[in-house]
Amino acid sequence: MSLKAAVIPVTPLQQNCTLMWCDETMKGVVIDPGGDVDTLMEAVEKFAFTVDKVLLTHGHFDHVGGAMDLAERTGAPIIGPHADDEFITSNVVARGHEFGVTGGRDVTGNTWLNEGDTVEFGNETLAVIHTPGHTPGHIVFYNEKAGLAQVGDVLFQGSIGRTDFPRGDLDTLVASITQKLWPLGDGVTFIPGHGPASTFGQERATNPFVGDQAIV
Ligand SMILES: [Zn+2]
Ligand SMILES: [Zn+2]
């Protein structure tokens, strides 16, 4: 048995919506359905799994704008992010308009997650790691067995998340990455919220913001 994953970029911001499913039970999750729900539904049908849960890493509109539509169309509950992002998940429509993105909906009725929680689908488990800094309620989903993490806008190949949004903080973000993600191991592959995947080891070796040589 194994965990399967696919990445579908959505919205004009090319946000990475990640599909993960258990190939024994064909139950899965959709992480950060920022928009383009028709495209996501086609992908789910192509991979032929049942959407068990809709998961959110953080509240920004390009990650959550399609969550309500997807939840209604699949019957799956919306889980996450951490409650400290409530001021953002409740403001999706207004923020989207500021960036010229329409069609998103404010998120309501979701279940908040905390550090140490787990999310299960089929025979697979995701650990929840609270990683504030980009937003205060940002979380990372980590599948230990596959060594795979969905890190949202915390960490990118060669960069880190912006901290100039409301309640962002650079020192907090760097601490989240170096103290909570690096201990998971150099071999962990991560899917960021935008752009290509990488590994924690590659970023420790080369990332100018949080690489080992950047940390004094
Ligand atoms: Zn973001
Ligand atoms: Zn983003």
How widely separated are the two ends?
42 Å
CATH class membership: Alpha Beta
Radius of gyration: 16 Å
Task: Provide the number of structural domains.
Answer: 1
Could you tell me the strand content as a percent range? 25-35%
> What structural class do the secondary elements suggest?
alpha+beta
Strand arrangement within the widest β-sheet reads: 6-7-8-9-12-13
Q: What small molecules does this complex bind?
A: zinc ion
CATH topology assignment: Metallo-beta-lactamase, Chain A
Low confidence ranges:
none
Counted beta strands: 13
Estimate percent helicity: 10-25%
Shape: globular
> Helix count?
7
Secondary-structure element series: EEEHEHHEHHEEEEEEHEEH
- Fourth-level CATH superfamily: Ribonuclease Z/Hydroxyacylglutathione hydrolase-like
Architecture per CATH nomenclature, i.e. the level-2 architecture: 4-Layer Sandwich
If you average the pLDDT, what whole number results?
96
- Characterize the main sheet: 6 strands, mixed
Q: Which terms summarize this structure?
A:
single chain, 216 residues, alpha+beta, Metallo-beta-lactamase, Chain A, 6-stranded mixed sheet, 5-stranded mixed sheet, 13 strands, binds zinc ion
Description:
- This protein is of the alpha+beta class.
- It has one domain: Ribonuclease Z/Hydroxyacylglutathione hydrolase-like (Metallo-beta-lactamase, Chain A).
- The strands form three sheets. It has a six-stranded mixed beta sheet. Strands 1-2-3-4-5 form a five-stranded mixed beta sheet, covered by helices on one side. The chain has a two-stranded antiparallel ribbon with strand order 10-11.
- The longest helix is centred in the C-terminal third of the chain and has 12 residues.
- The protein is globular and about 45 Å long.
- Bound molecules: zinc ion (2 copies).
- The site of one zinc ion (ZN) has 4 residues, from loops.
